[in-house]
Known about the structure:
Elements (H helix, E strand, L loop, with lengths): L1 E6 L3 H12 L4 E7 L2 H11 L3 E4 L8 H11 L4 E5 L4 H13 L3 E4 L6 H18 L10 H10 L3 E2 L10 E6 L3 H10 L9 E5 L6 H11 L3 E4 L10 E4 L5 E4 L5 E4 L11 H12 L3 E5 L8 H9 L3 E5 L8 H8 L5 E3 L4 H8 L7
Parallel strand pairs: 1-2, 1-3, 3-4, 4-5, 7-8, 7-13, 8-10, 9-10, 13-14, 14-15
Antiparallel strand pairs: 6-15, 11-12
Helix pairs in contact: 2-3, 3-4, 4-7, 9-10, 10-11
Amino acid sequence: MIRVLIVDDSAVVRDLLKHILSSDVEIVVIGEAKDGLEAVELVAKHKPDVVTMDINMPRLNGFEATRQIMEKNPIPIVIVTASWDPNDVGKTWLAMEAGAVAALEKPRYSTEEDYKKSSENIIDTIKLMSQVKVVRRWSPNKIRNLQSETPTKIHNGLTVRPHGIVAIGASTGGPPVIKELLEALPSDFPTPIVIVQHIARNFTTGFAEWLDQSTSLNVRVAKHADRLEPGVVYVAPDGLHMKVDFSSHVVLTNDPPENGLRPSVSYLFRSVASVFGNRAIGILLTGMGRDGANELKILKDKGAITIAQDKETSVVHGMPGEAIKIGGASHIAPSHKIAGLLLRLVGGGEKK
């Protein structure tokens, strides 16, 4: 059985989540908390398998509660919040940075179909997240020490040459890794960056805003026919595939899902391999499944530089692990070393 703690200051929402989760025979709700302080106490006492965490709550908000839990009793935390509430957006992504593994909208019940889809998504996410590995989050000083001590495993040496694009794919656990990577890049980074991050519906805009505010780069949700520009980061929008064309523009399509996903990392990487070939850098980060794994190998076979996140720093090593298994990664690196490796590959220095 998957033991779940529900955290929300609304009794109505707690009851609704309990009703949804209890409808599945593999899930049992072992407790409820009405604020972050109570959540921290109940996690220590009952040690649930998964926590659903609201953001805006009295006494202690969801971001601070997530931070404290991940420092003391790390377990998978799923943020369940109102995605378009301006008070929630920033704290939701801070909670992801603190160690939460996924973010979902609160249950939708405008129509019966909406409610059914929302309920199924919540149940499926709880089941998946109960299986992920989480790690204790350390203080900033400890993280800096790790960055200086942890080696990067590199295959085939370093090849510094002009590159035309950087393509990044990620799923579970990806947002904080992408933020960490982009934060280390200078505002004059010499190539465009395109990203497919698997994320819950209606969270992409908040994700792009969070990255834009956190980094010196210009981060935006991609639009059809956007021209690819150096130092600009293009995030694939909800429900559409993203690819690049030979005139260096973004193309958004409604083509069928790949690997059950739209947008798909595979779809993006395949177009990057076709258009840019050996002038591309492909990066596959933490995530479930194998989306992008075969296509990272295609990129490598075209002469592109390919990087896969290592197992030790991945929340889920599915996507990068599959790429490594088939020989798709020319470099394997921990999350905090990827930016430095990228800068060396494009011939730049560390960000001042």
